[in-house]
Automatic annotation (TrEMBL):
CDD domains on file: AdoMet_MTases
Keyword terms, alphabetized: Methyltransferase, Transferase
Molecular function as annotated in GO: methyltransferase activity
Pfam families to which the protein is assigned, alphabetical: Methyltransf_25 (PF13649)
Lineage of source species: Bacteria, Pseudomonadati, Pseudomonadota, Betaproteobacteria, Burkholderiales
Descriptive protein name: Methyltransferase domain-containing protein
Signal sequence, renumbered to the chain: none
One GO biological process term: methylation
Every Methyltransferase domain range: 112-192
Gene3D superfamilies linked to this entry: Vaccinia Virus protein VP39
InterPro entries (alphabetical): Methyltransf_25, SAM-dependent_MTases_sf
Domain of life per record: Bacteria
S-adenosyl-L-methionine found in the keyword field: no
Length: 309
């Protein structure tokens, strides 16, 4: 078996590791084809079985590449707008808190490049697969990055000017959410901002996500077809689609559901003031959360800006 380091060299040398090299990701500087190959090959070894994340981390970059055209996480205009001031500043330290792959990091870098600058990145996730992908990605761009593989509440870094998060807080149990927000308060400079997107429910009791299994099956067949068209052998294309379908069929919700009220209260307890919550349609939520029933009436994607007092 190759080591993650040999894969790392392959990512850096610029070879496409997918069967065909005609897939153009939406973000031109994110080598998603090679990063997707890395997680497909290495997630079984790198993901911690106790976290149950292997199906997700193994297939997520491939789903982005093959099914979503390399799309970045939902909300790019919001992140670009709300990070602009930090991107124009003299100190540009950003903590990326939780990332299923390199998509959120790429979106953060794109927001800085829109202002003609580069961020100084800290990335935290408890999973080694996405952590390694982010190291490879930053190495490819020759950007400094401090990658921390630990619980998000244990992040420990020099003070940052901004924290970005996406589809993260609402997946944590309530007590863990509070710990993570307290950690954000510790590492954020006074006046520093949290810029995040996450699903908020109308009621704390609305945390169960009923999955539409017919829709999962339809999406599985579509992904299998696209993987085949991309040049994967039929058994591999079937395995990619089956892996993604397993995580689409899971329900990652936590009780109590994240609501605007409990989010504001948790931030306030940590000395962070929520300044803006903008609600977007839930159809804008991508990833493991997209396939659910009765979503539209009960949950929306919130774009949140909060400032450390
Ligand atoms: C749903 S994903 C983020 C999705 C986001 N839209 C994106 O594109 O990156 C959530 C991430 O949080 C990580 N995670 C979950 N619980 C964590 C914890 N307690 N500490 C650190 N990372 C955690 C998972 O490993 C996963 O990579």
């Amino acid at each position: 078996m190759r080591s993650p380091t040999s894969c790392c060299r392959a990512v850096r040398c610029g070879n496409s590791l997918l069967p065909t090299d005609n897939m153009q990701p939406a973000c031109p500087f994110e080598p998603l084809d090679r990063l997707a190959r890395f997680s497909w090959d290495w997630a079984p070894a790198l993901c911690d079985t106790a976290h149950g994340c292997a199906d997700y981390h193994r297939s997520w970059s491939l789903v982005r590449l093959l099914e979503l055209g390399g799309a970045l996480p939902a909300g790019q205009p919001f992140f670009t707008r709300e990070l602009a001031e930090v991107a124009r500043g003299s100190s540009r330290r950003v903590l990326v808190a939780g990332g299923a792959d390199t998509g959120l990091t790429a979106m953060t870098i794109a927001a800085f490049r829109a202002q003609g600058s580069e961020p100084e990145l800290v990335f935290v996730d408890r999973c080694r697969t996405t952590a390694r992908q982010n190291e490879l990605f930053a190495g490819h761009l020759r950007l400094p990055i401090d990658v921390q593989v630990c619980d998000a509440a244990a992040v420990d870094c020099a003070p940052v000017d901004a924290i970005v998060a996406h589809s993260f807080l609402h997946l944590l149990p309530h007590a863990k959410r509070e710990e993570v927000i307290a950690a954000w308060s510790r590492v954020l400079k006074p006046g520093g901002r949290v810029v995040m997107s996450c699903a908020v429910s109308h009621a704390e009791s609305d945390w169960v996500r009923a999955k539409d299994l017919a829709q999962v099956e339809q999406r599985r067949l579509g992904l299998q077809q696209r993987a085949g068209q991309a040049g994967f052998e039929p058994p591999v294309a079937a395995e990619i689609a089956a892996t993604a379908a397993r995580f689409w069929a899971t329900s990652p919700g936590q009780a109590p559901a994240l609501t605007q009220a409990n989010l504001r209260a948790s931030f306030a307890r940590a000395g962070i003031e929520v300044r803006h919550i903008g609600l977007q349609g839930v159809e804008e939520v991508r990833g493991p959360l997209a396939i659910t029933t009765r979503e539209t009436s009960k949950r929306e994607r919130a774009e949140v800006v909060a400032v450390r007092l």
